[in-house]
Structures are given as structure tokens and as C-alpha cells.
Amino acid sequence: MILRLILCALLVGSASAQVPSDTLTHYTMEEIVISADGAVERSRSASTVHRVALAGIAQTDAASIDQVLRLIPAARVQTNSRGESLVYIRGSGERQISLFFDGALLNVPWDNRVDLSLIPSEVVGDITVAKGVPSVLYGPNVLGGAIDMASRELRAPGAYLQLSGITGSYGTSQSRLTWLRRGNRFRTTVFGGLSRSDGTGIPGDAVLPYSQTEGSLRTNTDRDMHSVFAQGAFESESGVSVGLSLLRFGGRKGVAPEGHLDPARARVRYWRYPDWATNMVIISSQVPLGTGNVRGAMWVSRFGQRIDKFEDHSYRSQVESQEDEDDTFGIRMTFMQPAGAIGRLRGAFSMLASEHWQQNKGGGGIGAPLEFVQRVYSGGVEYVREGAVEVSFGASGDVLTTPRTGDKPPRPSQSALGITTGATYTRRSGVALRASVGRKVRFPTMRELFGEALGRFLVNPALRPESSILSELGLHVEGGSTDFETIVFFTRTYDTIGQHMVVLPGDSRALRQRINLEGSRMGGLELILASRLSPSLRGNCNLTWMHVRALENGRTVPLAEKPNLLGGCNLGYTLKPGLAITAESFITGQAHGLATNNQFVTLPASAILNARVSWLLLLNQVVLEVFGRVNNLTDDTELPQLGLPGPGREVYLGVQVSF
What we know:
Elements (H helix, E strand, L loop, with lengths): L1 H13 L9 E2 L6 E3 L5 E3 L6 E4 L1 H5 L16 E5 L5 E5 L7 E5 L2 E2 L18 E7 L14 E7 L1 E2 L3 E11 L3 E11 L3 E12 L25 E13 L5 E14 L16 E19 L2 E19 L7 E21 L4 E20 L7 E16 L3 E17 L8 E13 L4 E12 L3 H5 L6 E2 L7 E14 L2 E13 L2 E6 L8 E6 L2 E16 L2 E16 L2 E4 L6 E12 L2 E10 L2 E4 L5 E4 L2 E14 L2 E10 L18 E9 L1
Parallel strand pairs: 7-10, 25-29
Antiparallel strand pairs: 1-11, 2-3, 4-9, 5-6, 7-8, 9-10, 12-13, 12-39, 13-14, 14-15, 15-16, 16-17, 17-18, 18-19, 19-20, 20-21, 21-22, 22-23, 23-24, 24-26, 26-27, 27-30, 28-29, 30-31, 31-32, 31-33, 33-34, 34-37, 35-36, 37-38, 38-39
């Protein structure tokens, strides 16, 4: 382990993978602006804004977006006990992050999160991540940041067809088709993809004393997924544009049981998802308004799933099932307008209406259908004063109502006030200093308030919203072939939503219950380096140290599953034209897991090394790439959560043809 940590540290100390030129761009509503020549540029912001471009997305060779988000500095992706892959940024909770696709909220409102392992990476052309004190443009519930994904499209008129296939360890296979076309006024995108796997490999030194079958596969981790995306857009000579997007992704999969729990003494999830699907229709538009513009997105979505619960890890005897269906309608609008000679005014309004329906079957009968309804309204305005010192300040208001609460008692509406302030000082030498302070609030989700998870949770409908005071100070230095950024951040959260274990009278197995803690504190330092070391060697690296603690009865205790260190590095080297080698490293520091006796257990640090070799061949108008990839080269155990280790060594071979 020590040797692996040293190897990863050496990679972090050097510097991002050499990638082909990014030939695709996108349309987005947020911190990215589109210049007159179509190039993507980053606007100045007092808060931290990072971007993952298409080339970085493509070189992960991942079927889903969860592995791509590991490239974000200070981000951690882990799969929880429900089998959902979620992202955490700077020690935040997964429900404190909003995820957008082409301006529409992708999170399922019932729980304000979505399983990232089911979102196809191939449809995404660009990812923008806002951390620190996110702009009011992102709306409510963004204590931990916002991730804005934009679909792929061509930068210039023409057509593009890409076919790709991957095969690898444990019966893994992927096949994908992408077709893009752009004319003078119309543009079109079509994507279809299939992926499957027999399961996830077990690392060589993983300890799984319970619920693990014999062999090299982790129990109940098979998956079979499909995805379809189609988009059409029109732009007039006056600059008015309208786009229509259709998105479907879904399939079936198993959920790994927690291997540290004795099923005779604890409630273990023996779950399968035989049916899981999301369907979305998104209408987006942009209208010039004087010297400014108005942009908007309107969407409807239906999320549906069935959860089958089994008696034990043989998955032969089904004891209960739950069917869920979520219908959502959303509107999100932003405007940007000059205000005076050196000022800009920005504003946003959003409305989200969602209905959750569920029904349990088994355990002696069919339960009554339950219906839950919520409405979330948000509006905010920001003013930005330009100059050598750019100053911004804004305010927002959010409202949550829950008109229907199933079989639970009704709840009053809740409201919250958000504030953002910031300043940026930029020198011509390429040095920028920025600072921001703000207040954000996150409402508890309906699942946190009312969800029982097939008998695993004890509800607590008295949960209060979380509120945070967020602050950060950043220094960015551009120096020719090398960019460096350092960020100091601190967050003080009140009424932090956590969990504890409860044993009811007459029951020997503990139930989980969500509670409001007194609060929590999180501080840290983020370092980012990107450099071209030579014409054939490029790299980017990041390292984040964090100290996260909950406040409890006048003392501090750990927050579960919050590592004290996160790091990553991409190092790419071109041996000769068309032949390249990429090395990747991901470091996770020590964290703590919460055991069934409410005691914290140490989760060890880990270092994961990946390697990729690719050969690119140009044949007239055809581009052929053949590549091989090894993930977790040293077969190390990454333990983000008790009893749920990450995958062991995986080997993949792939081919991609572009016309």
C-alpha cells in the first residue's frame, strides 16, 4: 500500500493526459459563454468553476458518466448500498449537488439525486462544475455545488458518424453509435448505446465475510443497460434558437450486498432492479433581448423503477417488491443584461413540480398506493461590476411545498434565503485572486422525510433544512505552458442531516433513521496543476486535503464516509504520431464508516492506478482508434463504504471508427 501511495504521489507531483483537439462544442446556460467564433471560453467567476472537455470524457472509455466525474478536482464517486453511483464534491452530501443536462434538472426530485452509472457518457460533450458559492443561476439545493452537462454537437457545418465497441473483463461489452450533423440553421444529434456486464470483480485483498458467493465476481453486480438520445435545434438569423431533446436510458441490474454485515443481526439489502428507466423531453431556447439575452429550458420526465427484495444472497426467494414512478415538470429561465457602463445584471427563475407514486407488494399482501407531491420555486438576481476588480453580489429565495404526503402527516411549507458575494482581481500577467462568501440552504427530500426503503429506515418527518455559510479564497496563475490554482475553502453547516441506528423494542436488528445533527464544519485546501512538460508530454493533477467534522453535544465527531484526502492525476505521453500512453492515478485518504452500534470504524486509504495505450490511424476521411485499458492495475482495495469495496483489476480492449 505504501509503495502504491508513493507511485500515485509521483504522478500527482508531475502533471493531464495528452488528448486530441476538442472539435465539439455545446450550448449551456451557466458559467460558460460562447464567443463570436464559436470557441468555448470560461467567464470570470468569483467562485471555483472547472470544466471537463470532450477529449477528457472520451478517454475514460466509460459507458456511463460516473467514471468521468472522477476527473473533477475534489470529487469522489462511490456506489452506495442501494447500488446507486453518486458524486460528492469537497465532502458535501450527494443530495447537496444539482445535476443538469442541457439546462434541465436531471436529479429525480423524490431524492434529489440520480444513479450516475445509468447516464451514458457518449451523449455528453462538456461538463462544467461550480463549487464554493454557486451562482443564483443554478437555483435551489446547491450547498455542495452544481454540475452542468451539455450534449455533443458539431462546431462547424458538416456531418460526423462514430461507431465504437469495447469488450473486457467479467463479460463486459459496450456498443455505441453517434451521428452529428450541422447546417447553416439546423443541427441534429442521434445516439444509441448498449452495455452489459456479468458483474464487478473483487480486489485481491478485499474482506467480505458475509453474503459473498464463490468465485471472482462480487455477488449480484450484473447489469444490462441501454440508452437513446436524439436532439434537433434551429437558429435564426436574428439569433433566436430553439432545441428539442429526447432522452431515454434504463435497464436492469443487481445491488451488491454489504459484505461486512451478518444477516442474522443486521438488515442487509438483498435487492435487484429488474426494471429501471428515465424518459425526458427537453425544450431549450435562447432569445436576444436588446444587448442581453434570455435563455430557458422546459422539460417533462418520467422515472420508473421496481425493486425486488430477496430473502438471502442466493436471490432465489423473493419476499417483497416496491414499484416507484416519478413524474416531473420543470421550467428554468435565466436572463443576462448590461446594467450601466461597467455592470451586468443576471437573474434566474425556476419551478419544479413532481409527483412520486409507490406501492409495496409482498409480506402478506399488496399495500395501498402512496402518492407524494412537492413543488419547489426559486428566484434570484445577481449584479456584477466589471473592471480590474470585479465585484458581484446577489440574493435568492426558495420555497418548498408538499401538498400530498402519502400515509404520513402533512407538513407546512418551507422557505429559505440565499446570498452570494464575491470579488476577483485580475492582473495582465495572468494572475487572478478571487474570494467569495455566501449562504445556501437545502430542503430535506421526500425520501429523507417519508421513505422507509422496504423496512430498512425509520422515518423522521420532522427533519429541518440544512443551511451553510460557504467561503473560499482562490489564486490562479497562468504561466505559458503551465497553469496553477490553489483554493482555501471553509463551510459551516447548521442542522446537518445525518443518520443514526435505532433498535426498536422486541427487535434485535437496527433500523437507520435520518436526524438533524447540531451542525458540521468542513475546511480544506485544493491544489490544481496543468502543464505541457514537452511537445509530447502533458499532464494535469489535483490534490485536496479536507477536515470534515460533525458537531455533537459540544464536541466534534467524524462524518461518515468523508475522506481527508482526494487526489488524481492524468499523465499522457505520445511515443510517435498516433501512438500514445496514458497513466491515471486516484488517491483516497482515510475516512470513517458508521457501524450498526453507532460506532465509527476506520476506512483505510487507497491508491488506484489505471493505464491506457491507444493507436490512432488516419485513412482519408476515416479515423480509426484501437486501444487497451487496465483499471486498478495493482488490484488494490478501495473501500468508500463499509462492506462495499470498489472493483478489482479490469482489462478492456476497444475500437472506435469515425467518419
